């Protein structure tokens, strides 16, 4: 750090013109990135971390502008540079990769051509050599059969593959600085690891500097030298990655860090002001676990098949020229498990493993193709999903949805939403009694009573999540399915909601099936864990056993893929 | 590509079938007695009965349908009472006039609408954007026959720049030898600049009327889809890679933005083929539209039904062409077929 | 429990209190976009002319007076007179009722039929969807105005049949919008949640799906009103539906068309202008209604 830094952001303020006047998205921040250094900018949604990076490469949208401050890049003033100068720098000296890699590529242009466009623009290749150089760039990001992939369109490639193409595009001209804006959000954890390892390896090899923008403190600390924490447009802390976990200085960093689930933590540890005695009332001493007696739920040999799109038209079928029927796609392929009373069962796996399909069948919104679902001694799998809503069993199995916004009717107030199950299936009647019940439920989930007359668009994400939970527990169900209930929430809100769910389970003596892709969260909340892959169960056991000493290779792969911050 | 065309051809089969069934039903629900209509007002009951059995109207409906389809396959759409000619011959003779007018109008419209929509999106909030919005809102509010009359009043009566709104060629010019049936093309083929000028001056106002009419939807769609594409992630990637403005807007944004515009063309054609009827009436254009209007006034039903069926089949064919064009631009459609 | 809620930051956005009334919101929309205000004003004027028009006009719209035929606009005859000496201003105002009624009736008809069919198709899927989809596709296979011509020619030349034809050609539009909206919401989180709350499928349709589709259908209605008027006027311009001497904008333009070439512009101009203004008003109104019902914009 003796030489002057490659990128020097000083006193930067970015303003956006909105309908309510000017809003400062970034407020006088300082960031410096040295040559070959890897810096993370960490913050929750709305912290201004992405805006900062857009300001650096000057691709802010029309409404935004740099109001104050300077951005220096190896001696060039980026704020004052002409658009032509900037265009020359972008892609050649400073490159960016974005989240949602599939959308980041032109959907109707061959990926090889898109790499060529950049090479030709920056005179890194001639028309004669472009194809060869583009294929070389694909090879560098370890894309198998690059000659073939050159001719592929983005929709023909997987998400992880698309992100490799985006990386190839960004590194094609050997830039000095790479800005990666949430490069792995939305990718599975194993793909995330592969992509991050690739970025780090390629940038180290070329002596490049990297800025990693992420909401994930663990990811930042695992891959970066330095971490910059942003909150509401300000930089609240800048420290070495090793330091930030060991000795966070700013209260916000401390809170954020605490709220990030890690190995060796208890659920209560996530909360900023957990009293010391709460630490002892730990999750592992499951007080309500009813060890004896029959399980609450038994699932046997459950299968869900989806027909493949029919090959050939009606005409082809009539003329007998139809191709032989393709075998149906098995989303869930003969699984069996049980849930005991008072237990939390974790259902984990990467996207497409069948965990959500399984949960939809168990809660009887989806009909299984084969197998039995026995709930408290009754075979509920044989009751068609359309009729299950009218049986008395409906009130005993409830669910909390992944997206709190999508799961609330925009035309119902919070009260109406919470009371919907009571009105349909409960015995309570009378305006006052219902109101009292709603207030009681709001109190249980920590929703301020004055908010229950509001409509969903007038509530924050965390408040909407509470409304969804209150609705699920309104009729004291025996089994609640939690489908990634915190996936759409910031970590600090996630910490609160997870604790709330655990407290409610103990108080109301419910069983949970917790569907998640996040092993660190599963570890905190679950007694037993089932790991799924391609519709089958890979491993099953207590949470400590499966996550502490995994037997299956796939579970081990999942666990090592989680970014481990230095502790 | 061939696979795509075949796949698309198959999807037109139900459309054609639906069109034929609907037009058949329309012929059978004529007000009152169909045979009486075809026999004319002065016919005796005996003559009506004769016509009924001649037309097969005393047969059960499915049998009638089969004979209707058989006649269609032979290209028999009945006789026109007013011209005394087979409807098919009348339509074939007049179709080029309508086609030339519609296509010329669409050409003018696209030549204005595409650049206008793209510029409005690229310079969002500028005067050109405001102009674009005025065009889009005012354009859809203008009744096409009213626009035509206004243009006639201004350019013929007041300014005297345009000839009288009376058909494709004035009385003194002679038609060039028929090659395509399009006077503009045929006169060029015949190397006859005089006739070309005459034909152009006649077609200018009606084509402009149609162009003004179809300007709004195309401009609106171009602007909207261009705006959406300019905000897309892949355009941001292209900008962040330092690609030139021309490459970003031309290669990356424009081609993607054309996809919804091409889809809109289907709707535009639907409007144009309808508006054509009104414009032909205003400008006494000797096309299929004014043929149908004359038949309507004379309560001559066979030409109307022939007209409706021809327009529908033409429209299905145009949609097929649009689908194939879409496949040419979008590899996702092409490769899935 | 209370210590938990402390962690959560207050909502960042300013949230309007739930008591924000539709009226206050409408006032906000109008003040923000004066053009929408203009559209609402024009609409009030059209409504007034449609209801009271025949009572307030200065002349009998049907009375001819050959001594004052083809007079240009003047203080006595604001919009001039036609070839029979009828007062064009009175005829334009009196025609509002007929044109407006045709548009409202056809839009109401297609809203009921198309909306119901579309919602059923989107929500239930299966064979219901297939049949309704086929019907809509078949109608869409025709150029719409041409199909309307064919329908009126076949059903008979009357105002009722113009209403029916206009409704039929708009059917696919309504059915498709309603189908798409119902279909998206069929698997939406809040509908699934309502299933878990013990609602039957029919109840879901009525309490969860339909109320959330209504605003979109309302926008659709005001946008198609303009198209319906244009379509009806176009049909009467070529001599379908309305018969002379009934005052109606389309037929009045048609009557004035032959006088354009000899310079008597006002006979066709003023009814055309009225038609254009009405369509313009409905199109603007559609945008205004969209702003009004969009819950995302109401804060």
Automatic annotation (TrEMBL), chain A:
CDD domains: ABC_NikE_OppD_transporters. Its main location: membrane. It is found in: Cell inner membrane. Gene3D superfamilies: P-loop containing nucleotide triphosphate hydrolases. One of its GO terms (cellular component) is plasma membrane. Keywords: ATP-binding, Cell membrane, Membrane, Nucleotide-binding, Transport. It is a peripheral membrane protein. Belongs to the ABC transporter superfamily. This is Peptide/nickel transport system ATP-binding protein. The lineage of its organism: Bacteria, Pseudomonadati, Pseudomonadota, Alphaproteobacteria, Hyphomicrobiales.
UniProtKB/TrEMBL annotation, chain B:
Keywords: Cell membrane, Membrane, Transmembrane, Transmembrane helix, Transport. Residues 95-326 form the ABC transmembrane type-1 domain. The keyword Oxidoreductase does not apply. This is Peptide/nickel transport system permease protein. CDD domains: TM_PBP2. GO terms for cellular component: plasma membrane. It holds the Pfam family BPD_transp_1. It is found in: Cell membrane. The chain crosses the membrane at residues 12-30, 101-122, 134-159, 196-216, 257-279, 307-329. PANTHER family: DIPEPTIDE TRANSPORT SYSTEM PERMEASE PROTEIN DPPB-RELATED. It is a multi-pass membrane protein. Belongs to the binding-protein-dependent transport system permease family. GO terms for molecular function: dipeptide transmembrane transporter activity.
From TrEMBL, chain C:
It is found in: Cell membrane. Keywords: Cell membrane, Membrane, Peptide transport, Protein transport, Transmembrane, Transmembrane helix, Transport. The chain crosses the membrane at residues 37-57, 100-124, 144-169, 223-242, 265-285. InterPro entries: BP-dependent_transpt_permease, MetI-like, MetI-like_sf, OppC_N. The keyword Protein transport applies. GO terms for cellular component: plasma membrane. Residues 96-286 form the ABC transmembrane type-1 domain. It comes from the Bacteria. GO terms for biological process: peptide transport; protein transport; transmembrane transport. This is Peptide/nickel transport system permease protein. It comes from Bosea lupini. The lineage of its organism: Bacteria, Pseudomonadati, Pseudomonadota, Alphaproteobacteria, Hyphomicrobiales.
